[in-house]
Amino acid sequence: MIKKITMISMVVLSTTLFLKAQDAEDSNKRVKVDHQTHIQEIPARMESMPTEIVHKICGYLPQAAIAALGVTCKELRQKTQHAFHTFDFVRTHEQEIGAAGINEVIDRHASPTLKRLMLGRAYNQVAFRKCPHLLTLTINTQVPNLPTDQLPEEISLLEKLQKLSLRGINAVAETMGRLAPLTKLRKLNINVDDGFVVALPPATLENLQKLVLYNEADDHVNLEDWGGLAAFKNLTKFEFSVDHATELPAALGALTKLRSLTINDYRGTDYSILRNLQEITDLILWDSVTVRVPDDLIHLPKLQYLEISDGFTVGDADEEIGLDTTALGLLPHLTDLTLDECIDHLPQELTALQELKRLSITGNQFPVETNWALLNELAALEWVRLQAPERPAAIEQRIEVVVDVPAYQDQDDQDVEIE
Questions:
Q1: Which contacts of 382-391 are long-range, i.e. CB under 8 A and separated by 24 or more positions?
Q2: At what angle do helices 63-70 and 91-105 cross, to 10 degrees?
Q3: How confident is the model at residue 191 (pLDDT cuts 50, 70, 90)?
């Protein structure tokens, strides 16, 4: 009864704050809710509570407070879909309570049972030593990389960590070594917006199953020595950028357990190394100047998903040359195909893909006389995405068509508004 009264009091307080904020918003006034007060009001332990109170808490408390309560309250865990001992932070709350507030919540409600943590720019001030049982850690700085954005020193203490996602953190040799003790790590995602990826993870992470090394800036990944890649023989999914390289890393051929491979920013035409990867089912080529669909793909017997995007070749007169799709006819077992921003006509070779279920060909400008009825010859085709002013009438109704309207407006058709 005392626990219930405590919770009801807390909800009344939270509801009052919420209603005051709503009233102030209606009056065009800004009210900052005191999340620090919320933190203090949360009971350290609460095993159960009535359903109606759970609903009110989810409506009025900040996400950080809800997650903290979810550590000990079964009903609240189910309502918010948080797993037991899970604790998340969203960026807006982190900005308001700061690093000190984060550490306080960890001390009061999570440590040492904290399993999952999401941080923003305050990541370097969080006491990771208080979270020895973390399984998942996400750091997203949300801003362009600074030279100081590197792996925090205490990250090496998280020896139970299984999944690490870093966005906006430079991957440099001086700090990548801090990951060496994390031998239980299975998924590592390093995505920098405008920084540096100049070092591979340490070889001690040989049990990695998923690895992402990606940079959204023009410089892309600056690695020069890919030899250490061969240490990660247990990888089943690998996504990486190659910084305008004209040859793929030889060590890629050692990753024989790969089922999914994404290559970004490749400027070569030799894909023969892929012949070693007999388990590949998904292959994605992004922003790579691809003259033709690689013939080497016919040596991948399990390939079902192929995506080639933003792969126009620029000719001598600066014109865009469409992809040579001849090899498509040799890949009859494809079920998913994406050819976005890389072709200038509807390939006749598509008729050989009788197992194809989904096709994306958006971002391409096809001639007005395009024979859309060709798609009707694909017996298994269920879904297609394309760029056109409207759904082509020649495509049978059994096929779901998603139309991307071109982002331009014809001067002779002024009454059509294009978003």
A1: 382/357, 382/358, 383/357, 383/358, 383/359, 384/358, 384/359, 384/360, 385/359, 385/360, 385/361, 386/360, 386/361, 386/362, 387/361, 387/362, 387/363, 389/416
A2: 40
A3: confident
- What would the pLDDT profile of 128-143 be if each residue is shown by its tens digit? 888 888 888 888 876 6
Looking at the DSSP bridge assignments, the partners of residue 191 are 167, 214
Mean pLDDT of 277-305: 91
Structure tokens at 224: 């020069």
User: CA-to-CA distance for 359 and 216, rounded, in angstroms?
Assistant: 26
Sign of CA dihedral 59, 60, 62, 64: negative
Half-sphere exposure of 56 (CA within 13 A, CB side): 18
Name the DSSP class of 110.
I
Q: How many C-beta atoms lie closer than 10 Å to residue 168's C-beta?
A: 22
Above 60 in pLDDT, residue 212? yes
More confident residue, 305 or 2: 305
Three-class SS of residue 180? Answer: coil
Other C-beta atoms lying within 10 Å of the C-beta of residue 151:
23
Residue 329 tokens read as 């006819």
Phi and psi at 240, nearest 5°, equal -155, 160
Is pLDDT of 181 > 70?
Answer: yes
Cβ 410 vs Cβ 389: under 8 Å: no
DSSP code, position 143 = S
More confidently predicted of 33 and 104: 104
Asked if 397 and 371 count as a contact pair (C-beta separation under 8 A), the reply is: no
- Cis ω before 367 (30° cut-off from 0): no
In DSSP terms, which residues pair with 384 in a beta bridge? 359, 401
β pairing state of 313-314 and 320-321: antiparallel
**Which of 70-99 are b and which e, b meaning 16 or more Cβ less than 10 Å from the residue's Cβ?**
bbbbebbbebbebeebbbbbeeebbeebeb
Structure tokens given for 175: 């700090």
- Entry field: residues in the chain: 419
Residue range 8-38, pLDDT digits in tens:
344 434 433 333 333 334 433 333 344 444 4
- In this prediction, residue 104 carries a pLDDT of 66
Torsion over CA: 68, 73, 78, 84 (sign): positive
Contact 392, 401 (CB under 8 A): yes
Which residue type sits at 309? S
